């Protein structure tokens, strides 16, 4: 039985991915900074899935010590890790001059440094076993620019290019690294927007809707599994078409 570690696993896309991996008979180590939400998620998951395949570790993905503790806990419960899903992330609004230094450092730590730390402590075992997959949650905001989202654009832009370097470095060990790049997704964070804003997002999509977390989960699982064995170093948008428009007006 294979094992996956998923960060940001207590809600949204991470929780949807957790459920799908469990449905596919993987062991799942849930990692999340929110201890209460993580324990609640495990309690709910054990109603539908075998508890011996589920574990939770409170984790600060921006802390080397915390990631080392996650690695040790995973090894103790499940042994070898076959896949790491770097899904944890935060969002910061504002033009660059409006963003505080603290907010800038925080988003870079959670959205970018976390991938460095998770790779540093989990990849050596993958190298030894000559197999493994890593899936990072990037964003279409790393592929394009947005108004009032400079720090987020910078962080996700780093993730978008980091995946290529990781894929080049680890391919010789049979380790594949890919990104899923979601567009606006129906997570609790997105649902906190006013109804009018949600309506505007839906209208901006060529499909007239936003992405559901379960749709992201399917792509995460695909990239983590052997079904994608010929894919590495790629950014896969899952966006209902948000990133395909040039911005030019309709020409008659």
TrEMBL record:
SUPFAM superfamilies cross-referenced by the UniProt entry: NAD(P)-binding Rossmann-fold domains (SSF51735)
GO biological process: bile acid metabolic process
Domain of life from the UniProt record: Bacteria
Record keyword Oxidoreductase present: yes
Entry keyword set: Oxidoreductase
Pfam family, one: adh_short_C2
Entry-linked PROSITE patterns: ADH_SHORT
Sample GO molecular function, one term: oxidoreductase activity
UniProt key word Calcium: no
Family indicated by similarity: Belongs to the short-chain dehydrogenases/reductases (SDR) family.
PANTHER family linked: DEHYDROGENASES, SHORT CHAIN, ESTRADIOL 17-BETA-DEHYDROGENASE 8-RELATED
UniProt-recorded name of the protein: Short chain dehydrogenase
